[in-house]
Amino acid sequence: MQTIKHALLAMAALALVAPGAARAADSSCEQVKHDNKVIGTLFGAAAGAFLGGAVAGHGHKGDGALVGAAGGAVVGNQMSRSKQPCGQPAPQPVAYVQPAPPPPTYAPTTITMWHDHYGRTCTRREETYYAADGSPVTRTTERCEP
């Protein structure tokens, strides 16, 4: 278990030092992409070794760490790959234009009151609302109360 800890510490130190030294020599796009893949591979291997050792059965912690390190290295390498080719500018975000607000759902309601020939109080309610296509629709309801 001690050797696994030392190996993980060595990989972490290498991940921090190696890309910086290489970048000092060449800071081209290709070099930066390579450095990112190296860092991703090393961190993936370290995380995989840790998880593999933790999951492995008793007496097989070293084997689990080795298998986890191999799998983690592959996953870390693939996750750190850049999809942007060198020499081409990154795509600019498209400006979002806010759509116009929808028309109001309801227009003012008109209420008319009168007394019919039976002496009841009646009301007529005219409501205008807008359909989904924006066209106005008027609904009229009449009600008489004793």
UniProtKB/TrEMBL annotation:
Membrane topology recorded in Swiss-Prot or TrEMBL: Lipid-anchor
Main subcellular location: membrane
GO cellular component assignments: cell outer membrane
Location of the Glycine zipper 2TM domain: 39-79
A Pfam family that the UniProt record links to this protein: Rick_17kDa_Anti
Region entry Disordered, spans: 79-103
InterPro entries: Gly_zipper_2TM_dom
Residues making up the signal peptide according to the UniProt record: 1-24
Location in the cell: Cell outer membrane
Keywords: Lipoprotein, Signal
Family indicated by similarity: Belongs to the rickettsiale 17 kDa surface antigen family.
Protein name as catalogued: 17 kDa surface antigen
Source organism (scientific name): Phenylobacterium montanum
Lineage, top ranks: Bacteria, Pseudomonadati, Pseudomonadota, Alphaproteobacteria, Caulobacterales
